[in-house]
Amino acid sequence: MKNFALIGAAGYIAPRHFQAIKDTGNKLIAAYDICDSVGIIDQYFPEAAFFTVQELFDRHCSKIKTQSNRIEMLSVCTPNFLHDAHIRYGLRLGADVICEKPLVLNPWNIDALENIEKETGNKAFTILQLRLHEEIIKLKQKVEQGPKDKVYDIDLTYITPRGYWYYTSWKGDDRKSGGIATNIGVHFYDMLHWVFGEVKENIVHVYSHDRVAGFLGLEKARVRYFLSINAKNLPAPNKNTYRALTIDGEHFDFSSGFTDLHTKNYAQILSGNGFRISESRSCIQIVHDIRKAKPIGLKNDYHPLAKLPLTTHPFGWTK
């Protein structure tokens, strides 16, 4: 049994980490968040110490470093722009770190973290849950066993509506979240790279506050993608989320099987087979390049939904 601490306990993704810690037979010793709406901890670890001040959380974790309940693992569930700093904190605390995606916002941050791993002797891992999805694993095997010169034509569509709160929160600030591609799409880009190979071409057709559309040329795939948080982009207005992947015109269904992927990720990490931070490099590079690219508009081979009318930012902000 490992002793865990967790940073970002009040966030959207934290419950999946609480569940994973519990399901893998481990214990949460301490948690921290600037927000105190963390009653959900009672469902998992009611005896965990909780702090709303980082310095007091650090004091507690440092105080028990030589005791039997010392922090051995730190889970990071904080806003994207803080991941780098909190991974550094965990490594220097003397713990191994599990960080929610995206690992960092910039590819060079990975190099710096790897240096701190060497300096401290501790390890950092990331959550790349789609690599553990049974249907994705089967797809990768099919591609590997298929013709070596085969290049697949793929359309990826992911629409997951968000309300106006999104733009007020850190998620609506590209400097903090990395933008739409990073915040809601990084795991899809990782999956595509993992299955279909390295990036040869990365073109952005449309980039706005609520969507991104573009083209990825991979070793074994030509990918047109469209990601959006605008409910008006849903093909059926009564749906809450729309996720579609077509490969050579055939629908690929991976809509189920998501419920226990964080637990599977934790189990792999704790058994010594988790995804090290270097494995995030390609997807972090992809989303970084998308964020920095100049959209070319509706030219060449673009996703059909890229033609949908653009909307103004609800608060009048610009990128």
Description:
The chain is α/β, with parallel strands linked by helices and 319 residues long. It has two domains: 124 residues, 3-Layer(aba) Sandwich (Rossmann fold); 160 residues, 2-Layer Sandwich (Dihydrodipicolinate Reductase, domain 2). Helix content is 33%, strand content 21%. The chain has ten helices and twelve strands. The strands form two sheets. Strands 3-2-1-4-5-6 form a six-stranded parallel β-sheet, with helices on both faces. A six-stranded mixed β-sheet has the order 8-9-10-7-11-12, with helices on one face. Strand 4, helix 3 and strand 5 form a beta-alpha-beta unit. The N and C termini lie far apart (46 Å). The mean pLDDT is 94.
Give me the secondary-structure topology:
Elements: E1 3-7, H1 14-23, E2 27-32, E3 49-51, H2 54-63, E4 73-76, H3 83-93, E5 96-99, H4 107-120, E6 124-126, H5 134-145, E7 152-159, H6 165-168, H7 174-177, H8 179-196, E8 199-207, E9 211-218, E10 221-228, E11 242-247, E12 250-251, H9 261-270, H10 281-292
Parallel strand pairs: 1-2, 1-4, 2-3, 4-5, 5-6, 7-10
Antiparallel strand pairs: 7-11, 8-9, 9-10, 11-12
Helix pairs in contact: 1-9, 3-4, 5-8, 8-10
